Amino acid sequence: MTNTLGFDELFVEFAQELRTVGLVIGSDDVLTFCQANHLLDPSDVMNIYWAGRTTLVRRQDTIPAYNRKFYQFFLEISEEETNVAKKKFKAMINTAATLEIPQTEEGEPNSGEEEKKLGFVAAVNDIYRNKNFSDCSDKELLALRKMISALKISPPVRRTRRVQSVRKGAQINMRKMVRETMRTHGEPNEILFSKRKEKLRPIVLILDVSGSMADYSRNLLQMAYSARRANQKVEVFCFGTRLTRITKSLSKRNPDEAMKLAGQEVMDWDGGTRIGDSVTTFIKRWGKTRIGRGSIAIICSDGLDRGDPATLAAAMESLSRIAFRVIWMNPHKGDATEWKPMSLGMMVADPFIDEVVSGHNLKSLEDFSRKLARIR
Description:
By secondary structure, this protein is an alpha/beta fold. It has 15 helices and eleven strands. The protein has a six-stranded mixed beta sheet with strand order 8-7-6-9-10-11. A three-stranded antiparallel beta sheet has the order 3-5-4, with no helix packed on it.
């Protein structure tokens, strides 16, 4: 569930504005509208548009008035706006795509071109979502990075050996029941259950920032920032010819400051690539600590390696023994379902990789974030 804290008052104000243009809206409609937005992503204005359209609009002839007011209220937010909620909303949304009214509504009364095209909105539409990062313009990349910042990348959970008492379950807590039975002289008052405790599994992101990954590295770094901000179990490293830990930099609250600090720390940005040496450094310094052991190691690279293939093979073999799962994110995989590695680095590492995923566009990152949370 998406957190819409701070925007409920904005949604209520919007409903009140609609009343001024003739829409009949009750308090229960406003409550339903707010509840609907709690279940959606408010950074996607299309979500808010359709939530309001389905809960606040009762008559078809009021749709043009709804469209006009929606555009004025949510999309014409000036830089001089004093409303704190509106300023926060504008900072969160991603202005890049155009929200189109369905063609079936072209015949609506008083529906002009201004109602069919609501201007710039927060969500990047399906065309942008499926567009390769390398084909995007600078303006499109800025919008996509805002969308990436809204990704919910959460580590999966793992069961520990410790147990905890629960009210209902499949396993009886025999030890505790025996103790309770002794207190009641052999008459148990209730059946007690237990289950194994769960902990978040660590995630290690190892990002290739060499020259061959220039079209993708900054977007993947934005993904890493989102993951780190969401959970402290995420560790982030960058590498070109050497490995650099940037976890602390990405912990900054301000994303621009975090990206700037990360860029300053990584001295070999857009340079050469030595994957084997970098993975070896990770294993020696962090592999046997709580960071590496039992983690999900995600290497984001195209596999173009200038180092010794034997070093890479030995490093990947060690990583596969330490990590719970080794995932390789290669943007060149694209949307291919049957894909074979072509670069020497990928061929050498392939036997020690559990899964190869793509990271070439926004949709692939969204699919990966959902898949990651389901790993057990």
